[in-house]
Amino acid sequence: MASIMSSSSALPTRSLDSSPTHSGCSSKLTSLSWVSSFPSINISINSFTLPLAPSLNKGPFVQAAWTRRSRGEAAKQHNRKSWKQRTDMYMRPFLLNVFFSKKFIYAKLMHRGTSKVISVATTNAKDLRNNLPSLIDHNACRIIGKLIADRSKEADVYTMSYEPRKGERIEGKLGIVLDTIKENGIIFV
Predict the structure, then answer these.
(1) What is residue 132's DSSP assignment?
(2) For 117, phi and psi rounded to 5 degrees?
(3) pLDDT at 8
(4) Where do the DSSP E strands lie in 1-104?
(5) Checking CA distances to 175, which of 7, 35, 130, 164 falls within 20 to 30 Å?
(6) Parallel, antiparallel, or unpaired: how do β-strands 116-122 and 159-160 relate?
(7) Is the pLDDT score of 188 beyond 50?
(8) Between helices 173-183 and 138-154, what is the axis angle to 10°?
(9) Residue 91 φ then ψ, to 5°
């Protein structure tokens, strides 16, 4: 096994029976370092070697222990989009947005991928606000549809899509805007 030998001659130390006194220094210290106050021990390992533990840590990263997910996390489904949700913005890139307030009608055509506005028409514009008798009637809806169609053709956009909001029906003023856009040569996909 391992042999342990104690040797006091390896480092200079002071003797155990000599103790310094205040009245006079009868014995002198042989070393002034604090290491000299400890006995030196020589350890030699000749007969056996320690088995090397297999390294679980591969690389500079520390691996965390596996923990069980909580019940809430285990029951939760991951939000994965369907194929249609992932490809719809490429199949139908131009989206029409129509909003009716109590005073005005707003319509804009946006590119879904880049969120850039292609064309805008509103009855709140200076040229329409001063010339139209009513800013929210059926005639104003037809004018907004014609303006959107003309401005989108200028931007080389000939197809667009409209997604109704939840519970929204395509009838009334909204139907008039969409029909006018179709009549002016824009295809809805």
Answers:
(1) -
(2) -85, 125
(3) 47
(4) 3-7, 40-44, 94-100
(5) 130
(6) unpaired
(7) yes
(8) 40
(9) -80, -35
